[in-house]
Amino acid sequence: MPSTYNKIHRLKSQGWTWPEFLAELEQVAVHSIDEKTLYSNFRLPHRKPNKLLEETINQLHEKYFPSPFPKEVEGLITLYNHLVSAKNYRTQEDDIELLKQFVLAELQHDNPQYDLRYSRLAWLAANIAFDRISYCRDNGLLEQLVENQKSALQWFQQAKQVITHYQQTVEIKIEPFVIYKLTQNMLASYLNALPSTNRLDNNDLKSFIDSSDYISETKHMLELEPFQWGIARNGLRFSSLLKNAEDCEYFYRALVTANKHFLDIDYQLPGALSIRESDDFHWALDIIRNRNLPVILEQL
Amino acid sequence: MNIKQGFIALLTALIFVLASGCSFAPPESPAPMVKQKKEQAQEAAQEQPQSQESLNPSPSIMDGMEERKSNGSDDMERLD
What we know:
Distance between the termini of chain B: 31 Å
Order of helices and strands of chain A: HHHHHHHHHHHHHHH
Order of helices and strands of chain B: HHH
Structural class of chain A: mainly alpha
Distance between the termini of chain A: 32 Å
Number of strands of chain A: 0
Oligomer: heterodimer
Helix content of chain A: 55-70%
Number of helices of chain B: 3
Largest sheet of chain A: none
Strand content of chain B: under 5%
Radius of gyration of chain A: 20 Å
Number of helices of chain A: 15
């Protein structure tokens, strides 16, 4: 789910002026939102939006960029996200398992219809397996780790194939970002299965990146949506892990284009380490420093 | 219990949890809400000795995320 920061940028990139943006918000907001709040959430990726802004932006985003998936399955994904992130939820594991069994039963009907509902359910099945990967890795549950990784990869791939096929058959336009998200999730399934010390030059990562055309797809996505700092950061991460100096420079420049705060290698966002702190970026950091990129880019 | 029944039971439990969290008193009547909260706190205090064990969360798949980050392990989040 894109952050409020990304949604504000996506809405703004339709060409709205700030007064037009505020007028659009007025139409869906319960209470009015002031320009200062909107603008500061536009400028600062680390800014946590207040509840009113978050909900209003969600509504406006859904109006202009509606999800192509059926609402009832979107609801199921929201339900699962609440379930998996709940604190002190005593029966969390059991309830996730129940939900998983339901989703798998829906997917394994005798005559499944390979449509958007099916693909989104497959996405949810993949999410459930994906969310267990890091836990299994950290707790030495090797067998379960392999099983969950395999399941996540299988269902993400299935979702991708069905969406790709469906949009060709029905001639429906699905945003390229939808397919890209699945590619990135598959790559994440490989990455998260590895402890940070084993990621550099890893063969599984290398072969997936080569076969999926991830780097060029990432560059294409950033041309379409240059504000997507998360995409640029992951591009930089994998260029670093694969020791590609030119791509490291490319994605660091893209990261700074997405937001100037990233000129500071210690810049940290909620839920992510700074570039300096994360092991995955160590190789890139030498390139960034040796080429004096923060200083050069600050002057542009 | 088959899968569908189990799923319905899960949905019911979640709706109950959400409904409990969303309950509110009208703005003109703050006093009953304060009273209700006090009562709930007292009940919770009374119940604590019996239910202490069950209140401990089971090891969750999301547990340890912060610890992982402090160890320099920077996992990727999935995109929905």
